[in-house]
Structure formats: structure tokens, C-alpha cells
Specification:
This protein is α/β, with parallel strands linked by helices. The chain is about 35% helix and about 15% strand. The protein is built from 8 helices and 9 strands. It is globular and about 50 Å long. The two termini are about 20 Å apart.
Length: about 270
């Protein structure tokens, strides 16, 4: 692909057993992007789904050239899925969002506007005074989120109140620097990325979001709490040792045994 053929915006969507929610998300997102003045691509990453997610992805990729797919098995985690999508993205601006489309697609413009203002990392914030929620998250989720942010602040990883919003954007140089240093495969990867961005002194901007529904996350904070805290402690330890000052050493086996990152791309039907 030549430079002139590369899209301006790449949007990565990690998906785990999203057969029911993904079709509506892709229809709305692809329709929206088709009306924008900038070129774009949508990369959906199947994180080892066991339902019909991969089939849904293939159907959309067959009919829309903006759509690309990545698949692997078994499940590795959301952080791994997002990184896999970032590594094959061609865009100048790289965003990721959740498969449930919990935030209006129009807020893509808020991310892009912040990047145009000079910020290299833009994070959606559900706690920003300008944010609003159509359906408030369950009480248990709000409590778990506060406990999670308590640990992040206690470890000195981030001053931001909402590191886990599934709506973030990066310049290409920032994405290359951050995702090449990322170690965490699971839920806590967002906090790790923000900690690395602060370590590298990248300009970070929070933008308010309009949350429609955040009740169907596959992560259960209380159930998965031990692993999440362990991951956060690992970030703090690596930070103290300066291990994030350089890209992580990886082999292609971390993506899929015997395959390079680009081999993860599903080979869909070629256009006529």
C-alpha cells in the first residue's frame, strides 16, 4: 500500500463473543465513516470468540472495503486484541472503541480535534464534568471502578479518574511508541498505556463522552480483581526499573505461533 492509499483514520474494535451486538455497531460506524471527508478503515479483532463473531466480521468485510479483520485463537485478552489491531493499522490517527458502541460515533470527531490541537494521546472520560450517561452503570460497577482507580492512584500510575473508558485515540508515532512497550494482554492494559505515555511525556487530553450503556462488559471487577491488581503492580514494578524506556522484546509467537503480525489479517474476498 502506497502512502497515498493509506487511510487517515484507523478504528480498532476488539471483539469477544459479540455476535449479537457487532452487526448494529458496524452498520452505524461504517455508515457514519462513509459520509466523512477523510479516508478510514475499521479493523475488528476477534479475540478467540466461540460464537458467530468471526462469521459476522467476514460478512461485513465482504461488502465494505473499509472493513478489515484479524482473528486468532485461543482468547488472549482485550489488551492483546487492541495491540494486534494497532500493529496492522495503516492510519495516521489510530483509535479503538468497544464493540457495544457505548459512545456515539460522532465523538470520533472529538478525538480527532484534540489530536489536531497537538495532543498525541486522547482518552475518553466518563467522569469529566461534561460527560453524561443515558443509563447509569450498576452500583456494583461504580464501586468496583472506584476501587480500581484507587489502586491506580496508590501506585502512582495515573492521575486520571477514568483510565478504562473504551474510547481512546493516538497519533501514529504515539501508538507505535506505546503499543511496542505494552506488556499487559488483559483488562489493565489501558492503565499501562497511560502510565507509559506519562513516562514518555506524551501530551495527553481527556475528552468527555456520552455513555449510552456500559452494563455488559465481559470483565467482572470483583471476580477478576486479583489478576488486575497483580497486573497493575507489575506495571509499577517495571516503571521503577525503567523497563518501559525501551520497546518490549517480542517474538512472532506472542501474536500467533509461526506467524508475523500481518499474517493475522484474515484474507477476505478480493474486490472485482
Amino acid at each position: 500500500m502506497t502512502e497515498s492509499q493509506k487511510p487517515i483514520v484507523s478504528i480498532i474494535i476488539p471483539a469477544l463473543n459479540e455476535e449479537s451486538r457487532l452487526p448494529a455497531t458496524l452498520r452505524e460506524l461504517l455508515d457514519y465513516l462513509s459520509l466523512q471527508p477523510y479516508s478510514s478503515e475499521v479493523i475488528v479483532v476477534d479475540d478467540g470468540s466461540t460464537d458467530g463473531t468471526k462469521s459476522v466480521m467476514a460478512q461485513f468485510a465482504e461488502h465494505d472495503l473499509k472493513m478489515r479483520t484479524v482473528s486468532y485463537a485461543p482468547r488472549q485478552g482485550k489488551g492483546y486484541a487492541v495491540r494486534s489491531g494497532m500493529r496492522v493499522a495503516h492510519g495516521r490517527y489510530l483509535l479503538f472503541m468497544d464493540a457495544d458502541l457505548a459512545y456515539p460515533v460522532q465523538q470520533i470527531e472529538d478525538i480527532l480535534s484534540a489530536i489536531d490541537c497537538g495532543y498525541q494521546v486522547v482518552i475518553g472520560s466518563r467522569t469529566d464534568p461534561g460527560s453524561r450517561a443515558e443509563i447509569p452503570p450498576p452500583l456494583s460497577r461504580r464501586i468496583a471502578s472506584r476501587l480500581y482507580n484507587y489502586w491506580i492512584n496508590l501506585l502512582g500510575l495515573s492521575p486520571y479518574e477514568d483510565t478504562q473508558c473504551g474510547f481512546k485515540g493516538f497519533t501514529r508515532p504515539a501508538a507505535e511508541a506505546l503499543f511496542s512497550r505494552q506488556r499487559i494482554k488483559g483488562f489493565a492494559f489501558d492503565a499501562e498505556l497511560i502510565a507509559i505515555a506519562r513516562r514518555l511525556e506524551l501530551p495527553i487530553k481527556e475528552v468527555p463522552v456520552a455513555l449510552s450503556d456500559d452494563s455488559q462488559s465481559s470483565v467482572r471487577m470483583f471476580r477478576d480483581g486479583y489478576k488486575i491488581i497483580r497486573d497493575l503492580w507489575g506495571v509499577s514494578r517495571r516503571m521503577r526499573k525503567g523497563l518501559y524506556d525501551y520497546p518490549a522484546r517480542r517474538s512472532s509467537e506472542q501474536l500467533e505461533p509461526g506467524h508475523s503480525p500481518h499474517d493475522l489479517l484474515d484474507k477476505g474476498p478480493k474486490p472485482n
